[in-house]
Amino acid sequence: MQTTLNGNSLIVPKKGEGSVAKTLGAQLATEALEVRVLRTGETVALPESASLGLAQILTQLGQGNGFAVMAVQSELTTQQAADLLNVSRPFLVELLDEKKIPFRKVGKHRRVRVEDLMSYKEKTDTDRRKILDALAKEAQELGIGY
User: Fold this and answer.
1) What is the SS3 assignment for 98?
2) What is the pLDDT of residues 11-68, one digit of tens each?
3) In the listed set 30, 53, 69, which residue is the last one of a domain according to the structure?
4) What residues make up the domain containing 34?
5) 37 — phi, psi (to 5°)?
6) Are residues 22 and 60 located together in one domain of the fold?
7) Taking a C-beta distance cutoff of 8 angstroms, is the pair 128, 109 a contact?
């Protein structure tokens, strides 16, 4: 089923598509993909980024999850950006005001580029992983059992 969410395509898997999608997703994650164009019979190699994107899509479908396709250059409202980060809108606005995430104003409204939002998310995820790894290492050294 396909619908739109905030102007972006939202794809929800049909019943029974999961196992095929899961198998193909695992295969795409490790192999280059060539596609045969039915109309012309021509075989075309997909760019690596397209193969990886399809692998992620198929993995999500295989897990029964839907997905949305969104251009990286897209701009989001503060509510959409907050939803993507899974934080409250006031918290996101605070991050913007502290200049932790770039934004621009359209009239009175803030707009956040998806690319900037994903860069912030990647940085915070990396920082979080480093801290958790350090805590786990310290716990092991102290014999706490983590």
Assistant:
1) coil
2) 666 666 666 677 777 776 666 778 888 889 899 888 877 878 888 888 888 887 777 7
3) 69
4) 2-69
5) -80, 115
6) yes
7) no
